[in-house]
Design a protein that fits this description.
seven-stranded mixed β-sheet; 16 helices; Aldehyde Dehydrogenase, Chain A, domain 1; 541 residues; Aldehyde Dehydrogenase, Chain A, domain 2
């Protein structure tokens, strides 16, 4: 049973569930001025009430000013108190119940079951970071004691730890209205690190964003967090997002979206008088290598799994397998025939927005002209933002000679590449751009025979998968959801997992400070009982 309305203290549950179309600026709401826009039902293409008011530049300035005021007080809130705040956000999101699920489904056309799972993941992320804060060792506390009589020079007392970077701008993803949006991974990890957050809501699901945003604001009030620790800005264009990244109070950015959008924000951030880091997730085709032994042993199961991975969520996952490498010859022919039939039998379904639908159609048309073989559902009476799933086929030689085939197509499609040559697969692997994932289907013996392929893929991706599919990202401390450019802007980081918190933290060193003036994490008595490195050795003393 979900928690009841008693969890909502700052506002009543009914107030939180009332969608007003207004931005959230600290503990206040935006104004009913400026341009308005509406969400759309992708199934019909019809607009959905109510109208949403785009934030003004003055409102952005207010949000940024409040975030700046909250920077030091929120960064000084003890980690275990921030953990209470994160858990309260999760509780309040769950308390929204079916209202949240139904609104998310209306704005995306995705089924309720999808959002029940996504809500669970969102709340799991918040609680995972809360657990991380309770344990406390994430700050990487290090202590090197003084040696005053060291020759020829005395050694000072030196202590260091991770501290929050300051206010963070978060851009919501189109394809995950909960898990990668208002209270998703970027927001959860930034708040966990002690950073105020200003969220730029996605135009495709503003009602969902407002519901979650009010749950966050109410949690902040209930937990006595500083005013300005959280704001949510609506916008139907690029002006607010660009101005947010340019604002001097913003010290880091989290973004999930297209390569074009991510590059634009990276360039804006780099051009500031004070450049700031932008952590983007942008583009990945997630190559999948299906070796002959795998087809021989479990070809039917792999075909079914590949189809589910390509078409799940109407292909709108950043981890969708967009390139699939298969053997030439009879075994590969049979695999392709089965997969093509499954694609042809898959009904059309709506994409999230009209823009995504149009881009999918244009990219599919280009690809038909680039390859020799393709399969698709031929239904022509499409409603709303619906598209037909598709599959394309090309030889390894043609793939290597056509760089355009590496383009990510967002939607239910993939490219099948045929090759039987070990050296050819190695050349393909070397040619790949940075990716979020790569998958290899085979036997344990194949891992030895293709160790050179694995070694190359390790340099190209953030996550290697054996005998599984790339869609689906487990929320757990060890998960890595990142990869070399252009998968992300910084291949050293991850957007999922416990390490995500470190994106929004920076190292601070304290030299020769009296014990009473040090953060608790660095005090000699270790009052928080966390793991620390002391004089080069890990200790909890």
């Amino acid at each position: 049973m979900l928690p009841g309305p008693r969890l909502i203290v700052g506002e009543t549950l009914n107030q939180i569930m009332e969608i007003k179309g207004l931005s959230i600026i600290g503990y206040t709401r935006g104004s009913e001025t400026g341009e308005t826009f509406r969400a759309f039902d992708p199934t019909t293409g019809n607009s959905v009430e109510p109208a949403f008011y785009s934030a003004t530049l003055n409102e952005l300035e207010r949000a940024a000013g409040l975030a700046e005021q909250a920077r030091i007080p929120f960064g000084s809130v003890p980690g275990r108190q921030r953990a209470v705040f994160l858990r309260k956000i999760a509780d309040n999101i769950e308390a929204l119940g079916d209202t949240l699920i139904e609104r998310a489904s209306l704005e995306t056309s995705l089924p309720n079951a999808r959002f029940i799972g996504e809500r669970g993941r969102t709340c799991m992320q918040l609680r995972m970071f809360a657990d991380l804060l309770d344990e406390g060792s994430w700050v990487d506390a290090r202590i090197d004691h003084a040696i005053p009589d060291r020759e020829p020079l005395p050694k000072p007392d030196v202590r260091s730890m991770l501290r929050p970077v300051g206010p963070v701008a978060v851009f919501c993803a189109s394809n995950f209205p909960l898990a990668y949006s208002v209270a998703g991974g970027d927001t959860a990890s930034a708040l966990a690190a002690g950073c105020p957050v200003i969220v730029n809501a996605h135009i495709a699901h503003p009602g969902t964003a407002e519901l979650v945003g009010m749950a966050v604001m109410s949690a902040a009030k209930e937990c006595s967090m500083p005013d300005g620790v959280f704001s949510l800005l609506f916008s139907n264009g690029y002006e607010i997002g660009q101005a947010l990244v340019k604002h001097p109070s913003i010290k880091a950015v989290g973004f999930t979206g297209s390569r074009r959008g991510g590059r634009a924000l990276m360039d804006i951030a780099a051009a500031r008088p004070e450049p700031i880091p932008v952590y983007t997730e942008m583009s990945s085709v997630n190559p999948t290598f299906i070796l002959p032994s795998a087809i021989k042993e479990r070809g039917d199961a792999i075909v079914a799994g590949l189809h589910a991975s390509v078409t799940g969520g109407v292909g709108q996952f950043c981890t969708k397998p967009g390139l699939v490498f298969l053997p030439s010859g009879e075994s590969g022919d049979g695999f392709v025939d089965k997969f093509d039939r499954m694609i042809e039998d898959t009904a059309p379904a709506p994409l999230l927005t009209g823009g995504i639908s149009s881009a999918y159609g244009a990219a599919s048309t280009r690809r038909k002209n680039e390859v020799k073989g393709f399969a698709f559902n031929a239904q022509s009476d499409l409603q709303g933002f619906a598209v037909n799933p598709s599959a394309f086929e090309v030889s390894a030689v043609d793939y290597l000679n056509t760089p355009e085939l590496n383009e990510e197509i967002f939607g239910p499609t993939t490219l099948l590449i045929r090759s039987n040559q070990h050296d050819e697969l190695l050349a393909i692997a070397r040619s790949l751009e940075g990716q979020l994932t790569a998958s290899v289907h085979g036997t344990e013996a194949d891992l030895i025979d293709y160790a050179d392929l694995i070694a190359i893929l390790e340099t190209k991706v953030g996550r290697l998968i054996f005998n599984g599919f790339s869609t689906g990202v487990e929320v757990c401390p060890s998960m890595v959801h990142g990869g070399p450019y252009p998968a992300t802007s910084d291949g050293r980081s991850t957007a999922v997992g416990g390490r995500a918190i470190t994106r929004f933290a920076r190292l601070v060193c304290y030299q020769n400070f009296p014990d009473a003036s040090l953060p608790d994490e660095l005090k000699e008595a270790n009052p928080l009982a966390i793991d620390r490195m002391i004089d080069g050795k890990m200790s909890r003393s």
